Amino acid sequence: MQIFTDIWPIAIASVQFAAMLGAAAHVILTKSDVRSAAGWLGFILLVPFLGWLIYLLLGINRIQRRARELRSHPRGITIPLLKASVNELPSINSEEKFELESLARFGQKMLAEPFEAGNTIDILENGDEAYPAMIAAIDAATRSVALSTYIFNNDKAGHIFLEALSRADKRGVRLRVLIDGVGSWYSHPSIIPELRKRNINYARFLHSFLPWKMPYLNMRNHQKILVVDGTHGFTGGMNISEGNLVKSHPKKPISDTHFRVNGPVVSQLMRIFAYEWTFTTGEILDGTDWFPKITATNLQQTIVARAIPAGPDQGMNIIRWTMLAALTEAHESIRIVTPYFLPDSTLSAVLSVAAMRGVKVDIVLPATNNLPFVDWAATPQLAWLIDAGCHVWKTSGHFTHSKLMTIDGVWSMIGSANWDGRSLRLNFELNLECYDSPFTKRIDQLIDQKIAIANPVTQQIIAARSFPIRLRDAVIRLASPYL
Q: Could you tell me if 320 and 343 are in contact, meaning their C-beta atoms sit under 8 angstroms apart?
């Protein structure tokens, strides 16, 4: 018995030492970001047992390997390896052409999804405009409905969609509903039993109650996609939650922007949904119910656009790199609206350089954030950007969840991605990159409306914070890559 008593401490120490060394070696060999690697190494080496265990759960990107396996054995339509040429870009008016081609040369080295002309995009403000349009589209469906959302709450808004999906199912429409595994639990009880009871074909992205079957705990599908009959699309930043029904005065109102999309780029939205559906369920979505031929009309007067998916399965986050490329192309204006603003040092540096070379930079953030610690972490960085010449605004009123970006009044990016490490490193996101002066000016007008009810953030306001508040913000900022 004494022998066993003596052996146990040695055995436990040996397991700890071996696991610690293995985790440390994995960090050194796989983490391309030096700061991330250094942070994980320190955590693993300085926190016995918990360090390597938490890294095992949260730090290892197993999705990249799984995604490579799917790509190496293509089954049906997911996201094909397209070979579009910059020389094949649709014609656009002359003053935009040079800038578009410059961004496109960069962008199509990152992602071969082509730019498509012949699209129309309608701006839908809040759930009061977006939800009726989405429900009307579902009610008009004759062949298929593909819906992907991060949050599908079991509330007033959720039941509006639930009823519409049920009606479509009874008409024989093919339904596929994809909900993020974490997002499916934002309401209690979850909407999942209701979907199951109505026999609606749904799946949860990276979800399991069993810890050993849930190795992707920190990675989420944040995309918002609705495609009806393969021809009518919706995307943007809006979840399914009664908070978006602002006119009904919910307890926690959310101001958000969504977009109705028609034209060839809808097929790209559908391909991205199909890829995530196959990734989650193994089922292949193919055929004309999902991918009918879409003919562009009136190419000279409609929006040139393409869909940009991004996620931890990619070596480089395409949305982040597109942001960087667009910022470097800016000559007159950069305008950003986002609820969560924790850009990495490179994005912050490029924004600062743009402001210092004379570009007008407007950054619009919510005054009241639903995640206060994100606002705390962002504040020290705002001081540096303001010092470089950026204009930072905090909107009054409802929490603003919109994600908008424009450059020089001709280029815009809309979608689900925030300006933070979670969106640009950990989440699966979807943005639309758009080239069209009239559409971009409509986005700029929307941003002007937000600035009109906003207050400027100044160096004096930031400096006036008390010492405990400044210390809190500085400490929380250290965790910004993981917020």
A: no
